[in-house]
Write a structure and sequence with these properties.
membrane, single chain, 77% helix, elongated, Memb_transporter_dom, 287 residues, mainly alpha, transmembrane helix, transmembrane
């Protein structure tokens, strides 16, 4: 991380590239998703959004010189769309598109000094700076993550945490002494804890499958494990409902049998690393 910032800062401080601040800004913004796979996805989306906005900017900059009444319309419209698109974190490319359009248009129309750059030169310089920043990010992604198989290890870590969480909650529902006084509060707390744990696992899975080194077989393994975990989540709440609300021993026993079978299936689908392949999952979950 520090090396990435140092490289971008050196380009910003010591190079003579026009609009070189965009190199450092690109590195800073993309590093917000500093996880294997996600950083690559953000880089690709930033390139796509930036390039589309810059291609559109060339005719727009010529057009506003013909009719200056378009300037407030374009500025207000792009500002509104920039804010609205920022609410959807899954479409980073759309946010980058409107942000680039707004900032570039604002910069081009409010410059205090006369510049020799025309619209084409300004667009090309901005594109080159973005590509340099993305190149720094992608090279750092390789040395930080791909060399150490960090994405696979991170996902395996969340697999172990989720496995231990599900096993603990199922054990609580098996024992009479763990019966909560306020059952509805227990279910609400279980829902919040489950959402938190499964959200972290889903993010790690997305990070792993988005990695450039992830092959089709690995993506298939991740999809199979995520499907098994979805069934386990459904069975956990069905067991909780049978235990606390219906108070039905028959449904409870049947759900627990299915739950144990799925837990064994999930255990066999874990992406055990080469270092941990000889250790049982229960031992790794406790460590």
């Amino acid at each position: 991380m520090a090396l990435m910032y140092i490289m971008a800062l050196c380009v910003f401080l010591f190079s003579t590239i026009p609009h070189k601040r965009w190199v450092f800004l690109s590195v800073m913004v993309i590093c917000a998703g500093i996880q294997p796979g996600l950083i690559v996805k953000r880089s690709i989306r930033r390139i796509k959004g930036t390039m589309l906005a810059l291609v559109l900017m060339m005719p727009v900059l010529y057009l506003v010189q013909i009719n200056y009444r378009l300037i407030p319309v374009l500025l207000i419209g792009s500002a509104i769309l920039m804010v609205v698109s920022g609410m959807n974190s899954n479409r980073y490319d759309i946010k980058v598109f409107f942000t680039t359009f707004f900032v570039f248009l604002l910069t081009a129309l409010t410059v205090e000094e006369i510049t020799a750059e025309g619209p084409v030169e300004m667009v090309l310089n901005r594109a080159i700076c973005t590509l340099i920043g993305v190149a720094i990010i992608l090279s750092a992604d390789y040395f930080l993550f791909d060399s150490y198989r960090y994405g696979r290890k991170l996902y395996f870590f969340h697999q172990l945490l989720t496995y231990r969480f599900l096993k603990k909650k199922a054990q609580e529902l098996r024992e009479e002494k763990n019966l909560p006084v306020n059952r509805y509060t227990y279910i609400s707390r279980l829902r919040d804890e489950t959402n938190e744990r499964f959200s972290a696992l889903a993010k790690a899975a997305e990070s792993l499958v988005s990695d450039l080194s992830a092959d089709l077989a690995l993506k298939k393994e991740v999809a199979q494990f995520q499907g098994t975990l979805s069934e386990l989540r459904r069975l956990l709440f069905a067991t909780c409902f049978a235990r606390l609300i219906l108070n039905s021993p028959e449904n409870l026993t049947r759900n627990l049998v299915d739950f144990d079978a799925l837990m064994s299936k999930a255990q066999s689908q874990m992406l055990i690393t080469m270092h941990d392949k000889d250790q049982p999952v229960e031992t790794m979950a406790k460590s």
